[in-house]
Structure to design on (1654 residues):
């Protein structure tokens, strides 16, 4: 009892939750997630559908075809994608991961982290212009890495949301290191692509001085470059690349150099005036930014030339004046006013003279001398003065020709002064400084350059005096020192005794630092403690004086140009805010900086020859040549060098942030600064359907994946087969693109292999390998596929027949063996497979066979991310990392209120995933029944346009369907033809007409062109008509003003060999559709009430589960059972997995059904009549005693079950010791279990008795597991009993593989037999036992086993009553007598007929847990209808024209539904809309043509006939 | 047009539930068949008005196929039976009027019988090729 209590407490749906929230979070938007989302949304819940990727669709989107129908995966999924994408109550959240969860079942708070997409999905049109502009290529994971995509990308063409996303790893370290955040990675990528003009634009984004910074920057970017670490080579020569781009730009014709920013005329102007003091980098940057913001800016420059220190502080040979000039002019061209020779004496006074703000960027032009004797001599000068004079060509300056010059100082300026002296003709130049040679402030390369030019360096000195002779400088007396460092800016050194010397010189130049000339400002504004520079607020650049801002050297003392530019930008921002009266300070959050780990860097470098190349330096002119003139020392890179150097970039950030996408995007959808967001959702339940990933091919190194190019994984092969894949559906070898002939599939790579920690079967590989082999041959009939396998696990509905066809009709060869190794033959790159088989005599034979290509059928496993998520949510995982679900409670997790679906709980195929998703939805729907409908919104359509008075205006949309149609039919020709058809006013073609962007386009075109009829020429109306009808409805057209021409299923796919004929046929099919469309009339849908009760037929496990679940979701159920007791087939199952007791489950369910007030059980009854239709069924149920009851209900669930096959072989029925598994289980429970002594000492089990034979040509799915379970039970009772299982293929799929291994460990013997040579059972001559003779495979060895008991695994067959019920319900059966669902893959519990659902053995043989899941699934599909108060009826029904009706009554007689009525006194026979099913019988019968079928009217069909015979 | 490259024009009236779906299945199974057929979808084979057949014949169709669910499988209970009776009668009448009633075919093809659909089209196309062009149109021209 305690157990039962606990169970019911844990059983979801068994007790209602209080205070529930009517919303559900579904995590993972693959096919399972979408199904759960749609089921829940249709049942009245708000759904948040979260996926960690940028688009929904999951793995199924990557598949080419699906088994066993060979349906195109994308084709069947696309309507579901679109339905999910446009469902009002499904909110899709891409790039979302769970951060945390709190609360309880019924009311959770879930925090999601939404990674930035950097593209606004609301604005993005999916046009792809951004991707065309993006310079970054990445392996395309959607194509399994076989092709490249851009850093801005859409996962696949039909992706929902139909929007691009940008992949970023973070901010590249080069950008992070730069004070102005230059997008170095961006322009480097563009240089690599040869896009120099684009690169220039990217540089200019932050830097108005590309030519200058390409020459004299201290390039901290290179210091931080990920490659700047010993082993990774040297940093990318970013500065040289910048110079290359700038010089390339300026070498172009002026007409090419279009301004990158908008001109002054196009800006909104403010009325503010700003004064900028100083035309150096800080001032000019600030001025430019402010002008761009619409302000008027005047720059005051004291010197006669603009550019500040860039012009007068840096010598020409490093930075030619014309280079400075061209960039200054570029800035002036944007509208900055410049006043030269205009020193400003009183800065604050400017504010009184019409300026609203001032920026002080006056620089630090004031040099200083050491206060030592002789410093005032006329031959002692300052580097600043000296360099300025040289720059300006001032003839009054110090003449160094033929003189000996000593520069005092060790920084860049000292070097500049020294090298300038050389060029000006000094006879000898030396430089001397306090620092040691190694610690000189100038770069080491600078010092070396100087030395090359003959400059003598005297490091580590202190200077005592400038010596003189005859009033002229004669030298500098210095003492060598040991410098310990600087304390408070003052040097700390020890003089080396006896080292004093005089360095002879005629001229001494001091280059020991420079300070700003602050003038009056020194007293007006606050200064730094030193008193030499202005004090500012570093965040805002504001001085102590309101309206006065400052930046650059005037604040920092001498630094680098890039720092000054940074200051200029920052000040401009502050000034702009100041002028607008806003707060000056703003918060800037920068994304995290990328740190590649060493392994990753090494891998990248090894992967590409370009990356492993060494750094290319700029060329330096020879010292002897360059010291003679002022031409540039360094020569820029050539184009080839630049591109080669750019190719060395590792691309740390992935997205290079070059902004080309932003320039390209016409919708303004891109925002590179989009932050990550954290959001909290309030939901009542969580469904986890995150899916799995394929295991790496490298898990089995002996197969050479990763080393041999022609060894691929199954997912890679899947993409190769796909028409939209990397090779357009052409099967080719990766090594040489040749078409392979011999292709081998190796099964169980990463499955059924405890050695690589994969102790389970991945369930899908046998089937997908066969499918790939079949489809490959369809693509190229020369392909000879061979599949190497252990057991062929074709256990699903229709699977065995598929394998059989593949082998017998499609030339797929199956070889049962393990492949021990794959070796590449170097010359051909073919692959040699080693494997062993047995010959007829049972001798092992080793083989080596050569193949052109090998496909590894890799298994499936959960991703580390989903495992992490499970831990976060408190969801228990099993030893393989899958979510643990109890056997009898599929889809439930260890945490109440959190459900799991799809492969996350066990590897499974698509229909099982869909079933489980619906199952999870059913649990959630039951949990939250009280909150149903509280958070949902209704679909609102625009008002319908009245087109009755309009001439037909037909728009035709012809679909390429990728290459499905376009590869055969000449679509442009069809479009041209269509344009000439009557009433066609618009025709166009689309790559995928079903994609969301095309839907939006159709809506737009309808409005723009005033269309009132729409024809889509694409695929079958069966799958796509509702989608297009909804689209035109959203555009205000009646949905029945629509016609589809089926160009795919009925043209391109069936006439692949004759494209011309197929094109002509396509034209005619469209012409027929147009002919009908012209005559279409709007139709109205009637509504009908839904009876909120369900009828469940069958009281077995499936029926009881469905009934309980529907009841738990809040609806009444009639449960009809033929027998006198509930339970069905479950009554005979005694052994379960993992210690679960099926009989206990049975009892518990019967109790719950009896206790449930919402369920009315009709025992001993059968359905004898069903009338009506969805929402309004009337069913007559008759008891055995003949008592009839009429039930009214809205939906039907068919759960009629199945039965064990009664064997006709192996002496069953004749020999007492031959029993079926079912009987054996009963014996275990009732006989051996009670008296262990009676346990047989030897049992032989024979599999596939009645299954997989001519009479039952399908696999019964459950028998292998059943046999193993029962074998283990015997071993448990008596470990000494011998149990032998004779099998054909051991189908212990999924985690059942564990049981198989457990059985082997327990000593159960498994022997394989051949169906051609079945075992023989006979009485043993000597004893009372039996003898089983079997020809064991693959050794082909005959052995004889003795057995006390022979157990036959008899399999499951369809319930014989199905045929009668199928006739009553008008539902189809399979050839085997099971019910046929609406669609094998995506509608596994639905019927084509609305309102009828299917589950359990009535569908196909299945295990207890699978039956429960399917019954749950059927229940939520049913509730999806019951939850609606009314349904809209089909409008395709009969109508009558009273004027033509002669009231003859023929229609009344012929109508099978009693939907025509003619009573005395009536002038015409009316149509009862809700009863009419639209068969058209009355229409044909009507002698006067008074009856018409809406949507298929006489004139419409006649017009189609005319169009069909017309000669083209 | 010489007899050898005569391409018959075939109009097929298919029911929505079985034969049209079977034709789709032939497509998804990539079964290849001659491109001579033009399919007109109706909800039920029982909705194929004899006038459509007559009209198609008169308009110049060389072959006419009516496709429906197998007997007993009709989505509308017995539309296919009705059509079967009608077609028998129609053929008799047409024969009497001098039409070639062998140009009219009726086939039960289920949603899962793509193969049967493709085979039927092959068969009808071959038979109509053998027969040559339909002369009704010229004979009955007004």
């Amino acid at each position: 009892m305690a157990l039962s209590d606990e169970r019911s407490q844990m059983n979801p749906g068994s007790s209602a939750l209080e205070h529930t929230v009517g919303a559900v979070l579904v995590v993972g938007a693959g096919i399972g997630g979408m199904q759960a989302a749609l089921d829940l949304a249709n049942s009245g819940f708000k759904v948040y559908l979260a996926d960690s990727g940028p688009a929904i669709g999951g793995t199924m989107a990557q598949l080419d075809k699906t088994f066993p129908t060979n349906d195109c995966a994308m084709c069947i999924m696309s309507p579901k994608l679109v339905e999910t994408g446009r469902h009002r109550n499904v909110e899709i959240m891409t790039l979302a991961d769970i951060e945390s969860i709190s609360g309880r079942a019924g009311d959770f708070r879930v925090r999601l982290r939404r990674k930035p997409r950097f593209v606004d999905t609301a604005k993005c049109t999916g046009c792809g212009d951004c991707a065309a502009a993006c310079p970054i290529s990445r392996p395309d994971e959607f194509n399994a890495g076989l092709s490249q995509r851009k850093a801005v990308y859409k996962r696949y063409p039909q992706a929902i949301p139909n929007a691009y996303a940008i992949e970023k790893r973070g901010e590249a370290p080069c950008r992070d290191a730069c004070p102005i955040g230059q997008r170095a990675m961006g322009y480097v990528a563009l240089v690599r692509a040869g896009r120099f003009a684009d690169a220039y634009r990217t540089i200019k984004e932050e830097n108005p001085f590309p030519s200058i910074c390409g020459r004299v920057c201290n390039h901290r970017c290179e210091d931080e470059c990920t490659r700047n670490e010993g082993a990774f080579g040297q940093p990318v020569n970013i500065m040289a690349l910048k110079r290359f781009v700038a010089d390339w730009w300026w070498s172009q014709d002026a007409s090419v150099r279009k301004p990158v920013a908008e001109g002054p005329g196009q800006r909104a102007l403010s009325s503010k005036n700003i004064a900028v003091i100083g035309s150096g980098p800080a001032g000019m940057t600030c001025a430019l930014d402010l002008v761009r913001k619409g302000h008027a800016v005047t720059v005051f420059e004291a010197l006669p030339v603009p550019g500040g220190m860039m012009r007068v502080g840096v010598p020409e040979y490093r930075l030619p004046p014309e280079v400075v000039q061209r960039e200054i002019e570029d800035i002036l061209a944007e509208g900055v006013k410049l006043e030269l020779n205009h020193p400003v004496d009183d800065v604050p006074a400017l504010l009184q003279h019409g300026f609203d703000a001032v920026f002080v960027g006056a620089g630090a032009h004031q040099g200083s001398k050491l206060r030592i004797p002789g410093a005032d001599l006329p031959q002692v000068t300052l580097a600043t003065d000296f360099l300025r004079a040289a720059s300006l060509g001032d003839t009054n300056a110090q003449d160094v020709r033929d003189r000996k010059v000593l520069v005092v100082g060790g920084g860049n300026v000292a070097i500049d002064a020294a090298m300038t002296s050389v060029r000006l003709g000094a006879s000898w130049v030396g430089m001397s400084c306090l620092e040691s040679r190694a610690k000189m402030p100038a770069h080491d390369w600078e010092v070396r350059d100087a030395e090359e030019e003959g400059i003598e360096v005297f490091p580590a000195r202190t200077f005592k005096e400038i010596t003189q002779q005859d009033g002229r400088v004669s030298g500098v007396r210095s003492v060598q020192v040991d410098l310990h460092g600087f304390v408070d800016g003052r040097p700390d050194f020890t003089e080396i005794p006896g080292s004093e010397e005089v360095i002879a010189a005629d001229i001494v130049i001091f280059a020991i630092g420079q300070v700003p000339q602050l003038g009056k400002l020194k007293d007006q504004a606050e200064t730094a403690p030193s008193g030499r520079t202005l004090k500012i607020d570093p965040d805002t650049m504001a001085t102590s004086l309101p309206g006065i801002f400052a930046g650059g050297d005037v604040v920092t003392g001498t630094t680098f140009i890039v720092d000054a530019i940074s200051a200029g930008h920052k000040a401009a921002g502050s000034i702009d805010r100041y002028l607008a009266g806003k707060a000056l300070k703003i918060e800037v959050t920068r994304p995290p900086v990328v740190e590649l780990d060493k392994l990753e860097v090494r891998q990248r470098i090894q992967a590409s020859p370009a990356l492993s190349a060494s750094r290319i330096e700029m060329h330096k002119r020879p010292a002897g040549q360059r010291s003679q003139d002022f031409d540039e020392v360094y020569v820029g890179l050539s184009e080839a060098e630049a591109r080669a150097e750019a190719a060395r970039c590792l691309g740390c950030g992935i997205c290079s942030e070059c902004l080309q996408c932003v320039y390209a995007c016409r919708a303004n959808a891109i925002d590179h600064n989009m932050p990550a967001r954290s959001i909290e959702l309030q939901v009542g339940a969580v469904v986890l359907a995150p899916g799995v990933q394929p295991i790496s091919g490298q898990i089995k190194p002996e197969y050479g994946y990763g080393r041999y190019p022609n060894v691929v994984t199954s997912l890679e092969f899947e993409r190769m087969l796909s028409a939209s894949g990397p090779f357009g559906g052409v099967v080719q070898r990766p090594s040489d693109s040749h078409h392979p002939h011999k292709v081998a599939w190796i099964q169980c790579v990463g499955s059924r292999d405890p050695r690589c920690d994969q102790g389970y079967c991945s369930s899908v590989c046998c089937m997908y390998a066969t499918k790939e082999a079949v489809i490959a041959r369809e693509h190229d009939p020369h392909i000879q596929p061979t599949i190497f396998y252990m057991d062929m696990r074709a256990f699903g509905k229709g699977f065995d027949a598929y394998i059989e066809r593949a082998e017998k009709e499609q030339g797929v060869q199956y070889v049962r063996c393990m492949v021990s190794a794959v070796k590449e033959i170097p010359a051909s790159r073919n692959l040699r497979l080693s494997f062993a088989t047995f010959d007829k005599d049972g001798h092992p034979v080793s083989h080596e066979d050569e193949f052109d290509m090998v496909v590894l059928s890799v298994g499936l496993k959960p991703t580390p991310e989903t495992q992490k998520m499970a831990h976060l949510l408190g969801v228990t995982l099993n030893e393989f990392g899958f979510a643990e679900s109890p056997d009898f409670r599929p889809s439930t997790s260890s945490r109440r209120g959190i459900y799991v679906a799809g492969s996350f709980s066990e590897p499974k195929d698509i229909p099982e995933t869909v079933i489980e998703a619906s199952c999870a939805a059913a649990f959630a729907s039951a949990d939250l029944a009280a909150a149903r409908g509280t958070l949902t919104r209704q679909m609102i359509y625009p008002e319908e346009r009245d087109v009755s008075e309009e001439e037909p205006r037909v728009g035709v949309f012809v679909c390429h369907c990728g290459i499905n149609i376009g590869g055969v039919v000449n679509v442009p020709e069809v479009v041209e033809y269509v344009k000439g058809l009557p009433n066609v006013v618009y025709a166009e073609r689309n790559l995928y007409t079903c994609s969301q962007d095309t839907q939006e386009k159709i809506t737009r075109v309808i409005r723009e062109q005033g269309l009132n009829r729409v024809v889509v020429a694409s695929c079958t109306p069966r799958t796509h008509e509702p989608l297009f009808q909804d689209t035109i409805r959203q555009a205000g057209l009646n949905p029945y003003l629509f016609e589809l021409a089926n160009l795919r299923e009925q043209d391109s796919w069936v006439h692949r060999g004759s494209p011309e004929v197929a094109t002509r046929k396509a034209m005619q099919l469209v012409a027929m559709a147009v002919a009908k469309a012209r005559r279409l009339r709007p139709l109205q849908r009637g509504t009908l009430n839904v009876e909120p009760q369900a009828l469940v037929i069958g009281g077995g496990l499936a029926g009881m589960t469905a009934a309980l679940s529907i009841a738990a979701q809040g609806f009444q159920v009639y449960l009809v059972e033929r027998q006198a007791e509930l339970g069905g087939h479950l009554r005979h199952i005694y052994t379960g997995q993992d210690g679960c007791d099926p009989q206990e489950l049975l009892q518990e369910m019967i109790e719950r059904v009896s206790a449930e007030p919402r369920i009315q059980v009709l025992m001993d009854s059968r359905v004898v009549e069903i009338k009506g239709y969805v929402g309004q069924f009337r069913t007559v149920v008759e008891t055995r005693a003949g008592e009839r009851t009429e039930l009214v209900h809205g939906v039907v669930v068919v759960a009629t079950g199945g039965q064990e096959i009664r064997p006709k072989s192996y002496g069953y029925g004749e020999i007492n010791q031959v029993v079926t598994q079912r009987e054996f289980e009963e014996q275990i429970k009732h006989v051996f279990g009670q008296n262990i002594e009676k346990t047989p000492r030897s049992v032989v089990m024979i599999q596939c008795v009645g299954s997989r034979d001519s009479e039952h040509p399908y696999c019964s799915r459950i028998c292998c597991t059943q046999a193993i379970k029962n074998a283990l039970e015997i071993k448990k009772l008596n470990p000494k009993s011998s149990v032998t299982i004779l099998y054909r293929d051991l189908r212990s799929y999924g985690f059942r593989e564990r049981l198989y291994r457990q059985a082997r460990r327990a000593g159960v013997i498994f022997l394989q037999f051949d169906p051609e040579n079945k075992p023989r059972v006979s009485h043993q001559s000597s004893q009372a036992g039996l003898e089983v003779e079997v020809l064991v495979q693959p050794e082909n060895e005959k052995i004889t086993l003795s057995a006390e008991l022979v157990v036959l695994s008899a399999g499951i067959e369809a319930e014989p009553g199905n045929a009668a019920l199928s006739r009553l319900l008008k539902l189809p059966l399979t050839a085997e007598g099971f019910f046929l669902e609406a669609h094998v893959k995506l509608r596994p519990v639905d019927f084509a007929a609305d309102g009828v659902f299917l589950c359990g053995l009535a569908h196909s043989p299945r295990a207890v847990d699978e039956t429960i899941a399917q019954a749950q699934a059927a229940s939520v599909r049913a509730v999806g209808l019951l939850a609606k108060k009314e349904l809209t009826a089909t409008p395709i029904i009969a109508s009558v024209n009273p004027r033509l009706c002669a009231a003859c009554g023929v229609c009344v007689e012929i109508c099978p539904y009693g939907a025509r009525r003619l009573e005395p006194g009536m002038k015409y026979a009316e149509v009862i809309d809700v009863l009419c099913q639209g068969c058209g019988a009355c229409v044909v019968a009507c002698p006067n043509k008074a009856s018409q079928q809406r949507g298929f009217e006489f004139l419409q069909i006649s017009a189609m006939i005319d169009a069909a015979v017309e000669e083209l | 047009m010489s007899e050898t490259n005569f391409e018959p024009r075939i109009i097929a009236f298919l029911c929505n539930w079985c034969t049209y779906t079977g034709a789709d299945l032939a497509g998804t199974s990539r079964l290849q068949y001659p491109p001579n057929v033009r399919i007109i979808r109706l909800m039920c084979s029982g909705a194929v008005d004899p006038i459509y057949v007559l009209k198609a014949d008169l308009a110049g169709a060389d072959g006419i196929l009516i496709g429906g669910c197998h007997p007993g499988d009709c989505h509308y209970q017995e539309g296919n039976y009705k059509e079967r009776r009608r077609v028998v009668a129609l053929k008799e009448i047409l024969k009497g009027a001098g039409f070639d009633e062998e140009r009219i075919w009726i086939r039960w093809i289920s949603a899962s019988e793509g193969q049967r659909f493709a085979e039927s089209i092959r068969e009808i196309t071959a038979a109509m090729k053998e027969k040559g062009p339909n002369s009704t149109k010229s004979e009955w021209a007004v």
Remarks:
- Chain A has a mean pLDDT of 92.
- Chain A touches chain B through 51 residues (CB under 8 Å).
- The longest strand of chain A covers residues 472-487.
- Chain A has 44 helices and 70 strands.
